[in-house]
Design a protein that fits this description.
This protein is of the alpha+beta class and 118 residues long. The chain has one domain (7-115). 18% of the residues lie in helices and 28% in strands. It starts with 6 loop residues before the first strand and ends with a strand.
Length: 118
């Protein structure tokens, strides 16, 4: 697990992460500082989200799966086109443009993935 360079967004910590055993793409990860059971992973490249309320995993368990992480820009999670561009660019930096996977479904190991509100 790399050192995760979280950006502080008020009471939330945010990072862009890639996960071992998951499709080759970078996710937006946020968690409530100091709480193990308050987190969300947004897949801006496929438009899906999984939240801690629909998972059995803790923040520490998720962080143990991280194989790449970078500090994100400071902005609202509602700015979907900008986050999508950031996640695409981070995915290309980490995996190489030819190896970014936009077709494989997110596995249910993290919990129940749902469509993000647009």
């Amino acid at each position: 697990m790399p050192n995760i360079p979280f950006d502080n967004h008020g009471r939330y910590l945010v990072a862009l992460i890639a996960l071992t055993g998951h499709p080759n793409r970078v996710y937006h990860y946020s968690k409530t500082a100091g709480e193990e059971e308050s987190w969300a992973i947004r897949d801006y490249l496929t438009g899906e989200i999984v939240r801690s309320g629909e998972s059995t995993m803790t923040a520490s368990e998720i962080e143990n799966l991280v194989d790449y992480a970078e500090k994100p820009a400071y902005r609202s999670v509602a700015l979907i086109p900008r986050w999508k561009a950031d996640c695409q660019a981070a995915s290309e930096r980490h995996y190489g443009a030819a190896h970014v996977d936009l077709t494989t479904r997110n596995p249910a190991t993290l919990g129940k993935w749902r469509r993000m509100n647009s």
